[in-house]
Amino acid sequence: MSIAAEFVVSAAGSRGCPTDGLPEVALVGRSNVGKSTLINALVGRRLARVSAAPGKTRLINFYRVRTNRAALYLADLPGYGYARGGEASRRMFDALTREYFSRERGPTTRSRLGPDHTLLLVDARHPGLAPDRSARQWLEALSLPTTVVATKIDKLTRAERPRAYRQLEAALHAPVVPTSAITGEGLKELWTLILAQPSHV
Asked: How many C-beta neighbours within 10 Å does residue 125 have?
């Protein structure tokens, strides 16, 4: 599959988000779970900046991706679970996230709220963390199409992986797509799921 990708904008609120109506895939997860790293792996080059300091990113970064099958945005949201700057930063993150997921988008034949598809990234080594369970429940309450993606599976041995996947699926009540940005495992399967969404074809 041919892929072309470019950075478009960093948005501090809904007014800064793209308005051209392309489908959006939002990446949500704890700080340091590997959202930017996964984006780079999906597009095949270093496009998203990977921060060494967890919780540093406070904006939503949009990347326009074109394949031979579809054009869409990957939206890299600030990580949750770690807020540089204390309570004020956490409140700012909560407000930005709520605004993004509740905003109306267009132009379309009818208004849509939030992204078309959400990837909830969780660290394969730490199944069932409370922030991940809360994020899963919140997304489920919004009735948004969501895929749970387990990152960093290369950090687990082959023998450890089945148990970790079972624990993740039990804790989050959803199937899990195991991935590694280092080895490339699971990336083809993840692209298949992304492009299978009705609005992406």
From this structure: 13
Tell me, what's the pLDDT at 183? 97
pTM of the model: 0.90
Q: How many other C-beta atoms can be found within 10 angstroms of the C-beta atom of residue 28?
A: 29
Superfamily of domain 3-200: P-loop containing nucleotide triphosphate hydrolases (3.40.50.300)
pLDDT for 53 equals: 54
* Conformation bin of residue 175: beta by default, left when phi > 0, alpha when psi is -120 to 50: beta
Instruction: Kindly report, residue by residue over 85-115, the tens digit of the pLDDT.
Output: 556 656 777 888 889 998 877 554 445 667 9
pLDDT given at position 56: 54
Annotate 153-180 with b (16+ C-beta within 10 A) or e (fewer). beebeeeeeeebbeebeebbebebbbbb
- Cα-Cα-Cα-Cα dihedral sign, residues 182, 188, 191, 193: negative
Contacts of 17 (CB under 8 A, 6+ apart): 9, 11, 60, 62, 100, 103, 105
Q: How far apart are CA 45 and CA 39, in angstroms?
A: 9
pLDDT of residue 50: 76
- At residue 200, the pLDDT reads 53
Q: Where are the domains of the chain?
A: 3-200
Report which secondary-structure segment, H or E, holds 165. Answer: helix 161-172
1: tokens are 């599959």
